[in-house]
Amino acid sequence: MSWLYLRLRLAIKSAAITGPVSMFFNDPSASENKTPETLGNALFDNEKVEDWMGLYGNNVASIFFVTTAFLGLLSKASETRGAWSAGVINISSMSGQLRISENKVGAKAANIQLTKMFATELALKKIPVRINAIAPGVYPSEMTGEQGIHTLPGKEASEIAQGLRPIPFDRSGK
Questions:
Q1: Could you give the angle at the alpha carbon of 123 between the alpha carbons of 117 and 125, nearest 5°?
Q2: 3-136 falls under which CATH superfamily?
Q3: Name one Pfam family in it (predicted).
Q4: How far apart are CA 82 and CA 110, in angstroms?
Q5: CA 30 to chain centroid
Q6: Residues 101 and 21 sit within 8 Å (Cβ to Cβ)
Q7: What is the pLDDT of residues 108-123, one digit of tens each?
Q8: How many Å apart are CA 89 and CA 85, to the nearest integer?
Protein backbone atom coordinates (compact mmCIF):
# COMPACT_ATOMS: atom_id res chain seq x y z
CA MET A 1 0.00 0.00 0.00
CA SER A 2 1.21 3.48 -0.78
CA TRP A 3 1.74 6.13 1.87
CA LEU A 4 -0.96 8.29 0.24
CA TYR A 5 -3.49 5.47 0.54
CA LEU A 6 -2.62 4.93 4.20
CA ARG A 7 -2.89 8.64 4.96
CA LEU A 8 -6.25 8.83 3.21
CA ARG A 9 -7.58 5.89 5.23
CA LEU A 10 -6.35 7.51 8.44
CA ALA A 11 -7.99 10.82 7.53
CA ILE A 12 -11.31 9.14 6.75
CA LYS A 13 -11.29 7.07 9.94
CA SER A 14 -10.39 10.01 12.14
CA ALA A 15 -13.00 12.39 10.68
CA ALA A 16 -15.58 10.99 13.10
CA ILE A 17 -13.56 11.57 16.27
CA THR A 18 -15.21 13.93 18.72
CA GLY A 19 -13.55 15.79 21.51
CA PRO A 20 -14.58 15.99 25.15
CA VAL A 21 -17.72 17.93 25.96
CA SER A 22 -18.03 20.38 28.87
CA MET A 23 -21.20 19.01 30.44
CA PHE A 24 -21.69 22.10 32.61
CA PHE A 25 -21.13 24.73 29.91
CA ASN A 26 -24.74 24.79 28.69
CA ASP A 27 -26.31 24.20 32.11
CA PRO A 28 -27.11 27.60 33.67
CA SER A 29 -27.66 26.03 37.10
CA ALA A 30 -24.25 24.32 37.21
CA SER A 31 -21.98 25.59 39.99
CA GLU A 32 -19.20 26.10 37.43
CA ASN A 33 -21.29 28.89 35.85
CA LYS A 34 -21.67 31.03 38.99
CA THR A 35 -18.94 33.55 38.12
CA PRO A 36 -16.68 34.23 35.15
CA GLU A 37 -13.75 33.03 37.27
CA THR A 38 -15.33 29.68 38.19
CA LEU A 39 -16.42 29.16 34.57
CA GLY A 40 -12.96 29.97 33.22
CA ASN A 41 -11.27 27.70 35.75
CA ALA A 42 -13.70 24.84 35.10
CA LEU A 43 -13.31 25.07 31.32
CA PHE A 44 -9.53 25.23 31.63
CA ASP A 45 -9.37 22.30 34.05
CA ASN A 46 -11.79 20.21 31.97
CA GLU A 47 -9.65 20.28 28.80
CA LYS A 48 -6.20 19.19 27.70
CA VAL A 49 -4.14 20.88 25.00
CA GLU A 50 -3.40 17.44 23.55
CA ASP A 51 -7.12 16.75 23.10
CA TRP A 52 -7.60 20.03 21.25
CA MET A 53 -4.55 19.40 19.08
CA GLY A 54 -5.84 15.93 18.23
CA LEU A 55 -9.28 17.26 17.38
CA TYR A 56 -7.91 20.00 15.11
CA GLY A 57 -5.40 17.59 13.60
CA ASN A 58 -8.17 15.17 12.68
CA ASN A 59 -10.73 17.73 11.52
CA VAL A 60 -8.62 20.49 9.98
CA ALA A 61 -4.97 19.62 9.37
CA SER A 62 -5.91 16.30 7.76
CA ILE A 63 -8.02 18.17 5.18
CA PHE A 64 -5.10 20.41 4.30
CA PHE A 65 -2.51 17.66 4.02
CA VAL A 66 -4.65 15.07 2.22
CA THR A 67 -6.04 17.65 -0.24
CA THR A 68 -2.61 19.06 -1.05
CA ALA A 69 -1.07 15.57 -1.31
CA PHE A 70 -3.65 14.52 -3.92
CA LEU A 71 -4.10 17.85 -5.72
CA GLY A 72 -1.87 16.93 -8.66
CA LEU A 73 -3.65 13.61 -9.18
CA LEU A 74 -7.07 15.24 -8.85
CA SER A 75 -6.16 17.87 -11.44
CA LYS A 76 -4.94 15.16 -13.85
CA ALA A 77 -8.22 13.28 -13.33
CA SER A 78 -10.14 16.38 -14.42
CA GLU A 79 -7.92 16.71 -17.50
CA THR A 80 -8.61 13.07 -18.39
CA ARG A 81 -12.34 12.93 -17.63
CA GLY A 82 -13.42 16.50 -18.30
CA ALA A 83 -13.17 19.77 -16.47
CA TRP A 84 -14.24 19.84 -12.84
CA SER A 85 -14.93 16.09 -12.70
CA ALA A 86 -12.50 15.47 -9.83
CA GLY A 87 -13.54 16.52 -6.38
CA VAL A 88 -12.91 16.42 -2.67
CA ILE A 89 -15.76 15.96 -0.21
CA ASN A 90 -14.87 16.87 3.34
CA ILE A 91 -17.03 15.58 6.17
CA SER A 92 -17.92 18.28 8.64
CA SER A 93 -20.90 18.54 10.93
CA MET A 94 -23.79 20.86 11.58
CA SER A 95 -21.93 21.42 14.85
CA GLY A 96 -19.62 23.73 12.93
CA GLN A 97 -22.51 26.16 12.63
CA LEU A 98 -23.74 25.93 16.23
CA ARG A 99 -22.56 27.60 19.43
CA ILE A 100 -22.13 24.62 21.76
CA SER A 101 -19.32 22.23 22.74
CA GLU A 102 -16.56 24.73 22.12
CA ASN A 103 -13.82 22.30 21.06
CA LYS A 104 -15.72 20.22 18.48
CA VAL A 105 -17.66 23.23 17.20
CA GLY A 106 -14.45 25.17 16.69
CA ALA A 107 -12.81 22.29 14.84
CA LYS A 108 -15.84 21.68 12.61
CA ALA A 109 -16.19 25.43 11.89
CA ALA A 110 -12.51 25.48 10.90
CA ASN A 111 -13.17 22.40 8.73
CA ILE A 112 -15.96 24.27 6.90
CA GLN A 113 -13.88 27.44 6.53
CA LEU A 114 -10.85 25.55 5.19
CA THR A 115 -13.12 23.83 2.66
CA LYS A 116 -14.43 27.23 1.49
CA MET A 117 -10.90 28.61 1.31
CA PHE A 118 -9.67 25.68 -0.81
CA ALA A 119 -12.71 25.89 -3.12
CA THR A 120 -12.16 29.62 -3.65
CA GLU A 121 -8.39 29.47 -4.08
CA LEU A 122 -8.49 26.57 -6.53
CA ALA A 123 -11.24 28.24 -8.58
CA LEU A 124 -9.28 31.51 -8.71
CA LYS A 125 -6.21 29.59 -9.87
CA LYS A 126 -8.30 27.74 -12.50
CA ILE A 127 -7.43 24.37 -10.97
CA PRO A 128 -10.36 22.15 -12.06
CA VAL A 129 -10.97 20.36 -8.77
CA ARG A 130 -14.23 20.80 -6.84
CA ILE A 131 -13.95 21.10 -3.07
CA ASN A 132 -17.12 20.63 -1.01
CA ALA A 133 -18.13 19.70 2.51
CA ILE A 134 -21.14 17.86 3.81
CA ALA A 135 -22.42 18.66 7.28
CA PRO A 136 -24.71 15.90 8.52
CA GLY A 137 -27.47 16.90 10.90
CA VAL A 138 -28.64 15.31 14.13
CA TYR A 139 -27.99 11.59 14.63
CA PRO A 140 -28.28 9.61 17.85
CA SER A 141 -24.75 9.64 19.26
CA GLU A 142 -22.66 10.27 22.34
CA MET A 143 -22.75 13.95 21.46
CA THR A 144 -26.55 14.16 21.51
CA GLY A 145 -26.71 11.93 24.59
CA GLU A 146 -28.96 9.49 22.75
CA GLN A 147 -26.64 6.59 21.83
CA GLY A 148 -29.23 3.86 22.49
CA ILE A 149 -32.14 5.49 20.68
CA HIS A 150 -32.58 4.61 17.02
CA THR A 151 -34.03 7.98 16.06
CA LEU A 152 -34.76 11.18 17.91
CA PRO A 153 -38.24 12.69 17.60
CA GLY A 154 -38.42 15.86 15.52
CA LYS A 155 -38.81 18.14 18.54
CA GLU A 156 -35.65 16.79 20.22
CA ALA A 157 -33.70 16.86 16.96
CA SER A 158 -34.79 20.47 16.34
CA GLU A 159 -33.75 21.48 19.87
CA ILE A 160 -30.29 20.03 19.31
CA ALA A 161 -30.07 21.79 15.92
CA GLN A 162 -30.94 25.08 17.68
CA GLY A 163 -33.21 26.18 14.84
CA LEU A 164 -30.37 25.98 12.33
CA ARG A 165 -32.56 24.19 9.81
CA PRO A 166 -36.03 22.69 10.03
CA ILE A 167 -35.97 18.92 10.41
CA PRO A 168 -37.75 17.80 7.22
CA PHE A 169 -38.81 14.29 8.25
CA ASP A 170 -39.63 15.25 11.85
CA ARG A 171 -36.94 12.88 13.16
CA SER A 172 -33.17 12.56 13.37
CA GLY A 173 -31.08 10.62 10.89
CA LYS A 174 -30.69 6.86 11.12
A1: 100
A2: NAD(P)-binding Rossmann-like Domain (3.40.50.720)
A3: adh_short
A4: 31
A5: 27
A6: yes
A7: 899 999 999 999 999 9
A8: 13
